[in-house]
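Comment thread on ticket #2218

A.B. wrote:
> Attaching the input chain for the structure job we discussed in standup.
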Amino acid sequence: MDRKIKCAVFDLDGTLVNTIDDLGNTCDFLLKKYGYKYEWSTADYKKFVGNGAKKLVERAFGGKLNTSELERIYGEFKEIYEKTMLDNAYAYDGIKEQLDILKDKGLKLCVVTNKPNKAAKGMVEHIFGKGYFDFISGVVDGKPTKPDPYSTLLALESVGCNADEAIYFGDSNVDMKTARNAGIEAVGVTWGFRSFEELFAEHPSVIIDEPKYISKLV
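C.D. wrote:
> Ran it. Output below, let me know if you need it in another format.
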């Protein structure tokens, strides 16, 4: 690249960490608890995630919950998931090595996710270590969620980086739109939860299919 990249922003679920089994298992538990007969596959849940836990719950329940039911079950989801989110979650192969390379190059590393804030910080710190990332932002109720650029711009501000000095990695159309809304160069990754076609439709600068290419882009 012909410009100096100072900061790399990463989505979490489907980009850094494979979280789909624990997200799906939490939804399945709640569906069974409330007598819903939906039997979603892993592929289904990969389509449901990306817009935050509340939207995941809404989709898992087939859009049949009224506002108060959704709020109540969303609250239950957060409580259960905070206890089970590390049962099966793991960093994708090669991710940690690539992040280490970026850190060695002096880049600031940020996580911006639509996962609830407490769960996001707990997961990142458990898998990568406390203080490994320079900034972690999950969803705080009442604050805008991706693709709104609010949390991404907050991340850049916190590490003293301008949008044209940053690069954004994500696995979904939500991420590509977030990067565009924040004025950041977008990189789509295909090892996560969404398809190449979905990413391509959002016109990212590049799409990569293995983590080993991350460090080659900065």
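A.B. wrote:
> Thanks. Noting for the ticket: Residues 67-84 form the longest helix (18 residues).
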